[in-house]
Amino acid sequence: MGSITRTFANNITTSGKFDATDLTGTLPAANIANASCTNITAVPSLTATSTVSSDPPSPDAGQMWYNTATKQLKGYVLGSSSWATGGTMNTARAYNFATAGTQTAALNTGGNLDPGGRTGKTESYNGSSWTEVADLNDTRYGNDGAGTQTAMITMGGNSPPYTANTEIWDGSSWTEVGNLNTARSRLACAGTSTATIAMGGNAPPVTAVAETWNGSSWTEVGDLNTARSQLGGAGTSTAALGFGGYGGGATGATEVWNGSAWTEVADHNTARYTGGSGGTSTSALWIGGEPKTGKTEVWNGTSWSEDTDLSTARQTLGGCAPSSASGLACGGDAPPGSPSYTGATEEWTGATNVTTVLGAS
User: How far is 42 from 207, CA to CA, in rounded Å?
Assistant: First the structure.
């Protein structure tokens, strides 16, 4: 092996005295305990942070990076999430009604009234209160929806019987458009009012069928791997997430859609169905569900983690979220009775885990 140059420290004797008889020279290889350290000529420079052009979508706790686009040094720290009480809906309802939008600009429609009866009621949320607006043309429950407060799509449901009806909201009224190819209830969907994917549901029986909407018609695409109803959905028509549901029993199965096929990924921590959902294929929420629970799980693109529970445990509720950073839960069937419908609304604030260490915020 190569030799290592002596330093003054090599001349300190065991008695603590300094031996000046040899202030130069090298240590022989025989004096090196670890003979595997051979031919070391240089130590490469070490990088403590990664350099990226955009923040990583799913960083780990403790990870740091430098964003060249924003010229910021950032880090990911463990924060806390919370649910806060929002404005109560005008009409308490449950049974998987459609909800879309954001925490401060949401729309919900359809559902079942307590003690029974389908409804076409539609309510708009401004971040503090709900306002009744124009009803659906087809009263139903078990419908799902996607989009925004001013441009929403809702499809399927039980009106009865199981329906394929699809309606579009333009900000003031609902218009019937092209029907689903497969009539069903308690399905899930993801996307916008002009580009949507609808998945699963009860046809009956429980189905794995998926269809995409292009703004004018529905086209059947690749089936889910696991047939189920009462599942959650998040994402877009080309990058979607389908999770949870009921297919002969509660499931935690999660699948990712890449625009052509579904791939099974990590399961929920708690298998359940009829929850509220929303987000993207890499940042989603699964809220509440049956049996009546307040459990909230967060998807980071790789796995689910349990987070802060709802204040009011419930099932068959409405939910929406642009990502796991913020969301809304409304209505549903809550304890102690069954049914015991509620109009309670809760607003989700996810943990602010990414922090700016250096640079303009």
Answer: 63
CA distance 235 to 255: 12
What residue numbers bound the domain in which 326 lies? 82-355
pTM: 0.79
The region that residue 127 occupies, defined by phi over 0 for left and psi between -120 and 50 for alpha, beta otherwise, is left
Q: Residue 287 in contact with residue 296, Cβ under 8 Å?
A: yes
Q: Check whether residue 28 and residue 173 sit in a common domain.
A: no
Strand 345-349 versus strand 64-67 pairing type? unpaired
Mean pLDDT computed over 53-63? 76
For residue range 287-310, list pLDDT tens digits in order.
999 989 999 999 999 999 999 999
Name the CA radius of gyration of the chain, rounded.
Answer: 28
Which tokens go with 131? 């306002």
Beta bridge partners of 118: 112
Let me know whether 217 and 113 are in one domain.
Answer: yes
In angstroms, the Cα distances linking 99 to 108, 110, 222, 277 are 4, 9, 25, 9
Answer whether residue 272 is part of any domain.
Answer: yes
> Does residue 361 fall inside a structural domain?
no
Is-contact 319 89, C-beta < 8 A? no
Task: Please state the separation of Cα 357 from the chain's center in Å.
Answer: 26
3-state secondary structure of 9: helix
Greater confidence, 359 or 2? 359
Segment 307-341, tens digit of pLDDT: 999 999 999 999 999 999 999 999 999 987 666 99
pLDDT at 356: 76
